[in-house]
Amino acid sequence: MSSIKISVIVPIYRIEKYLAQCIESLLEQSFKDFELILVDDGSPDNCPQICDDYAKNDNRIKVIHKPNGGLLSARKAGLEAASGTHIAYVDGDDWVDHFYLDTLYKLAIANDADLAVTGHFREFDGKIETVKPKNPGFYDETKIKSEILPKAIYNGEFCEHGMSTYVWNKLFKKELLEKVLYDVPNDVVMGEDAAIVYSYLAFTKRLAISKIPLYYYRQRHDSIVKSVENPKTEYYRLGLLMNFLKTKLSNVLDEENLDTQITFYLYSQILVRSGGLIYNEKNDTWFNPFLKAEKDSKVVVYSSGSFGQHILSTNLKTDYFKIVKWIDVDYHDLKIGKNTVNPISSIYNDEFDYLIIATINPSTHKSLKEELELMGINQSKIVKTNTDEAKINSLLTDIGFDENFIFNQNN
């Protein structure tokens, strides 16, 4: 009988710079009863050779070489080859704590949990932030249905998840994951992890959530700045995810709650990817979600993360705002157009009309607003994001989404 308790699956594509650190952190785990499945998803760099070299020296490693099919297909290929009773996913450009598997497995076994969840670290440009779940504890089936699922995608604060979308800070039961993963269409290429996690949650009867951070998530500059290739293509892809979630969760949530959760999730994703401004082709107008900040306002953008970068990039094309400064508490050597990132101490109230905090996370927004207030920034100049559900629904309809969140590309 196999002693393998956990199969760790690592999808790999064009990450040779980071792969060795990832593999080493897994091979050095305190927990020993696991196998490591490296899925080379047709990577064109040196990743295939790195995988093979490690496999020659450690019999716990299986390597799968496959044509490029995307992240979801790599996750599926790894699951098909897995021998463990439990499944952990690790992204090949990240790394894990020495007790990552040990802690996850004990959480799962001690609570007979179908799903074990932990905290994580976010590493960005050498700085590390600790992220902990806000709802730690044990949940049985009744509590999952009454407390977790109704707030999993959208917890009532725009736009914050009650359950994180990531697969990598979780431990799944293989027998349950097999019921879920293969049903996710491979053409879901935006929000693949959310499709897995939330549909798996619908099957979960026992859940254990721990605050302990064990996973190091690397936020890379080169993975953030991606131009929006075509808004309609992105809307279509987001629609595939949202429609899948509606279909899979319709049996465990009432329709009104489910539609509200998905509506805010979809809106938040469109906001981030569009850089805030959303073009309404039906009315030939721009939907500006930043309340009070009108066209040609002198604006400061706070955050050099994904949303902030997209705001700068979008404004280059639209010239909607006059962006006078780009700031961040963790400022980096970045430049978009004529704007480079500056420290928050570099701004003064008289040089701008409004300040946009580029985050869709309300907790982050609140803490950054407090920091700015301590620096003497006028709080009335910090804009809020439009979260009027009726207006959001109207916008989604105008740009082509139907009641099932399917996007009509011919709209």
Automatic annotation (TrEMBL):
GO molecular function: glycosyltransferase activity
Keywords linked to the UniProt accession: Glycosyltransferase, Transferase
Name this protein carries in UniProt: Glycosyltransferase family 2 protein
Organism of derivation: Winogradskyella marincola
Keyword Disulfide bond set for record: no
Top-level taxon in the UniProt lineage: Bacteria
Chain ranges of the Glycosyltransferase 2-like domain: 7-179
Any Pfam family matching the protein: Glycos_transf_2
Enzyme Commission number(s) from the entry: 2.4.-.-
Enzyme category, top tier: transferase
InterPro entries named in the record: Glyco_trans_2-like, Nucleotide-diphossugar_trans
